[in-house]
Amino acid sequence: LNEADLIGTIERLLPAAPPDVLAGIGDDAAVVRIGDRLVLLSTDMLVEGVDFDRSTITARDLGYRAIAVNLSDIAAMGGSPRYCLVALGMPRDPDPAWFVELVSGMVEAAREHAVAIVGGDLSRAETVVLSVTATGESVPGGVVLRSGAKPGDRLVVTGRLGAAAGGLRLLAAGPREAARARSAGWGRDLLDAQCRPAARVAEGQVLARAGATAMIDVSDGLARDLGRVCAASAVGAIVRLDRLPLAPGLQDLLRLTGDDPLDLALHGGEDLELLATLPAAAVEPAAATLAERFGTPLTDIGEMRADPDARIVATSQDGAERPLAPAGWDHFGT
Amino acid sequence: LNEADLIGTIERLLPAAPPDVLAGIGDDAAVVRIGDRLVLLSTDMLVEGVDFDRSTITARDLGYRAIAVNLSDIAAMGGSPRYCLVALGMPRDPDPAWFVELVSGMVEAAREHAVAIVGGDLSRAETVVLSVTATGESVPGGVVLRSGAKPGDRLVVTGRLGAAAGGLRLLAAGPREAARARSAGWGRDLLDAQCRPAARVAEGQVLARAGATAMIDVSDGLARDLGRVCAASAVGAIVRLDRLPLAPGLQDLLRLTGDDPLDLALHGGEDLELLATLPAAAVEPAAATLAERFGTPLTDIGEMRADPDARIVATSQDGAERPLAPAGWDHFGT
Fold it and tell me: Which candidate, B323, B299, B314, B2, places its Cα nearest to that of B158?
């Protein structure tokens, strides 16, 4: 049973959603109608030893990241995050300084996006588990689902790809190598992308207003997350590999660890960049707005095309098309 | 650091809540204003080996309970639950039958209260962790906080106390004893209260309409949860121990394990009964409504009284007052 099988089982067992649920399981966030508002609801669990390693991430960064990954889900709907709840499991007798730093990191991430942490739950657990729930609201431009991509839409992505996965590989290379790479400059972006990822909240709202037809955050790798957009929209995609905005530090990482930058970008995950589909005419104005307001690059990396089987193909500079499997991070994969 | 210390640390680090947050950390659920509605938000984490034992609770009961404990938090505000999100951590290669039963139990609990499960997250974890978030809406009668109890208010509780803790002790006595007690009848109520607790959702709404001034669910034992109401309301309480509605099976359990029924009721926790304060004139009509509509007893167990130090005293049949420490379940206590 991989993650998709498990989610399929859940979908099969759930009764039909009531009419006030506009989007349920299967998008970055659920969309429900509450009174006169469309409300977004999303949850993410981070487990020690699986999603993070307490020996390589500071408590402050961990708290920051736990909030950021949730706000990213709201961002991927084009929404505005509002409230967070934090359920935290941790061993008995937590180090008070560690705990203060953890909460401070959460507060920091929440404050950056004017989000209020309004509740939570504490439980004892053998290892640290952080489960955050974020709520958001739709903003003018509406809610962007995964399912609206149309043949002919351009495929765009914010920021740089592969940085978070590169940071993870750098941490795995050892504390000395990570520290050296950080002080040499190129490692800092990779480590920050892994430990203190930025949720592209404002960017998501700009893309929604620009007419994004589908959007997702790249949390499990470009290939897998694009595969989800294609499957939900029942369209295919062609990705120009030579156009992928690879994180600059990946070339240095390649020399240190041998990790292929393209592989990290396609299958590495955790980047929290936004992958969106847009009508062709909307790309340039959106890119200009993102660059001007936030200094965030927006790169056109391909096109959606008619394909009921939702296949992805990749092209290199030689122009030849090769199938790209929607593979990436899977908690339950082999 | 016990649970209260940790929560205190969090409260100290959080910035002041924005005006749309009517109640934040420190109640059963947060209360936020979204558009024209008051929305309730609550989260609860259940950790294997701490909050449940997979060898003594079926997957279906575990799923049911994970949803019920969250709906109980909405019930304790007098609200109407609407949506749930489920974050689930579990070991790789979960038994498919176990997983189906787990989800089915969740669906069952959600269906009983017309709640939609709209999203979630799956993660790998060494042991099973279930983190559920519930949203709700206020209903006519308004939101009932912990902080509104007034001197002179009567103190009432729904259902029977000590059953869930009794069920836990019965499970600890061994599978053979638990099975025998179940088939003898008296064990069934205790085991069900532990494994398939009922969230008092409809009862909470009746109590809110009846004018409840404060309300909480008895998740950590009567003494501790009453202590929370007293502290939040800055009033004291007098509890008539001879009036406590002890779960009937506790007398049989006493003969088997020697566990004191009164101790289980006061300090055992997990009962999901509602503890409320009401103006005296409202008690009888509310009790009549609960009995008639749901067959749920409502018992008057004492009175709130002026005491800025929020102390609780208990009286027995002899009328003597003794202090009652607000002790009970604490995840981080010694």
Answer: B299
List the one residue out of B106, B153, B163 whose CA is nearest residue B132.
B106
**Residue A85 burial (10 A CB sphere; 0-12, 13-18, 19+):** buried
Burial B111-124 (b: 16+ CB within 10 A, else e): eebebbbbbbbbbb
- Report CB contact under 8 Å: B83, A41: yes
pLDDT digits (tens, 9 = 90+) for B182-237: 999 999 999 999 999 999 999 999 999 999 999 999 998 999 999 999 999 999 99
How far apart are the CA of B84 and the nearest CA of chain A, in angstroms?
A: 9
Q: What are phi and psi of B70, to 5 degrees?
A: -75, -40
Number of Cβ pairs < 8 A linking chain A and chain B: 237
Kindly write down the DSSP assignment for every residue of B34-94, as one continuous string. ETTEEEEEEEEEEEBTTTB-TTTS-HHHHHHHHHHHHHHHHHTTT-EEEEEEEEEEE-SS-
A332 touches chain B (CB under 8 A): yes
Q: Does A1 touch chain B (CB under 8 A)?
A: yes
Task: Count CA atoms closer than 13 A to A241's CA, side-chain side.
Answer: 21
In whole angstroms, what is the distance from residue B88 CA to residue A74 CA?
A: 20
Window 61-100 of B: residues touching A by CB (8 A cutoff) are 82-83, 85-89, 92-94, 96, 99-100
Question: What is the distance of C-alpha B121 from the center of its chain?
Answer: 25
Q: Which of A5, A48, A64, A291 is nearest to A198 (CA)?
A: A64
Of B14, B42, B118, the CB nearest to A25: B118
ipTM field: 0.94
- Phi, psi of A25, deg, nearest 5: -60, 140
Residue B72, number of CB atoms within 10 A of its CB: 29
B291 CB neighbour count, 10 Å cutoff: 12
Closest alpha carbon to B262 in B166, B158, B154: B166
Interval A98-131: pLDDT, tens: 999 999 999 999 999 999 999 999 999 999 999 9
- Distance in angstroms (rounded) separating the CA atoms of residues A304 and B191: 55
Q: How far apart, in whole angstroms, are the C-alpha atoms of residue A326 and residue A221?
A: 9
Taking residues B120-146, report their average pLDDT: 94
- Out of B34, B47, B99, the one facing A6 most closely (by C-beta) is B99
Nearest CA in chain A to B87: A45
Q: Which residue, among A28, A124, A219, would best test binding to B if mutated, counting the most B CBs under 10 Å from its CB? A: A124
Indicate the length of chain B as a whole number. Answer: 334
Least trusted range by pLDDT, from A271-275, B101-105, B139-143, B168-172:
B139-143
- Whole-number Cα distances in Å, B186 to A324, B162, B269: 61, 13, 19
Q: Which residues of B touch A123 (CB under 8 A)?
A: 45-47, 50-51, 331
Taking CA atoms, B195 is separated from B67, B112, B262, B271, in Å, by 12, 16, 21, 10
- CB atoms under 10 Å from CB of A231, counted, come to 16
At residue B236, the 3 state secondary structure works out as strand
CA distances from B202 to A18, A255, B75 (A): 20, 64, 7
CA distance B10 to chain A (A): 7
Residue-wise over B248-285: b if at least 16 C-beta within 10 A, else e? ebbebbbebeebebbebbbbbbbbbbbbbbbeeebbee
Per residue in B295-318, pLDDT tens? 999 999 999 999 999 999 999 888
B50 touches chain A (CB under 8 A): yes
d(CA A163, CA A247): 5
In a 3-state reduction of DSSP, which class is residue A213? coil
